[in-house]
Design brief:
Strand content: 15-25%
Shape: elongated
Number of strands: 7
CATH topology: Structural Genomics Hypothetical 15.5 Kd Protein In mrcA-pckA Intergenic Region, Chain A
CATH architecture: Roll
Number of domains: 1
Structural class: alpha+beta
Number of helices: 6
Helix content: 40-55%
CATH superfamily: RNA-binding S4 domain
Strand order of the largest sheet: 3-2-5-6-7
Radius of gyration: 23 Å
Length: about 140
C-alpha cells in the first residue's frame, strides 16, 4: 500500500473508526484487541474516553496505553487498510513529550532490572550520616 493509496482511501472530511485506524497504524495486532483496549479506557481522543465506533479525523490527538508504555500521537493520515510497518508509521506523529517520557521509562526499567532502584526522595540527614559511616568503615577495612 503506497502513500497515494492511503490518501485515495479517505476523501477529505471523512473519518475512520478509531478501532480500524489503531489496527491500520499497527498499535494493535487485531481490531478485536484495539476494541478491547478502547472499551477498557486505554485509548483517549483529545483527552476524552471514546467508543470503538468513534470516527477520528486528521489532527486529533490520541493517548494510547499498552501495558507500561504510553504513546501520545497526532493523526497525520487516515487509513482503513493495514499495510507495511513503514506505511503505518506515516499515519501518525508522536509528540516530543511522549518520546522523552517513553525513553525515560525505558532507562528507569533498565536500571531497575540491573538492581539499581532510583529512590523517590533524597536521603534524610540521618540516612546520609549512616551512609557516610558505612563508607568510611568499608574504606578503613580495605587498607
Amino acid at each position: 500500500m503506497s502513500e497515494t493509496d492511503v490518501n485515495q482511501a479517505m476523501p477529505n472530511g471523512a473519518g475512520v473508526r478509531i478501532d480500524r485506524w489503531l489496527w491500520a497504524a499497527r498499535f494493535f495486532k487485531t481490531r478485536s484487541l484495539a476494541k478491547t483496549a478502547i472499551e477498557g479506557g486505554k485509548v483517549h481522543a483529545d483527552g476524552q474516553r471514546i467508543k470503538p465506533a468513534k470516527e477520528v479525523r486528521i489532527g486529533q490527538t490520541l493517548e494510547i496505553r499498552r501495558g507500561d508504555i504510553q504513546f501520545e500521537v497526532v493523526i497525520v493520515l487516515l487509513s482503513e487498510k493495514r499495510g507495511p510497518a513503514a506505511v503505518a508509521q506515516t499515519l501518525y506523529r508522536e509528540t516530543e513529550e511522549s518520546i522523552e517520557r517513553r525513553e525515560a521509562d525505558v532507562a528507569r526499567r533498565r536500571m531497575e532490572r540491573a538492581g539499581l532502584k532510583v529512590p523517590d526522595t533524597r536521603p534524610s540527614k540521618k540516612q546520609r550520616r549512616d551512609l557516610r559511616r558505612l563508607k568510611t568503615k568499608s574504606d578503613a577495612g580495605d587498607i
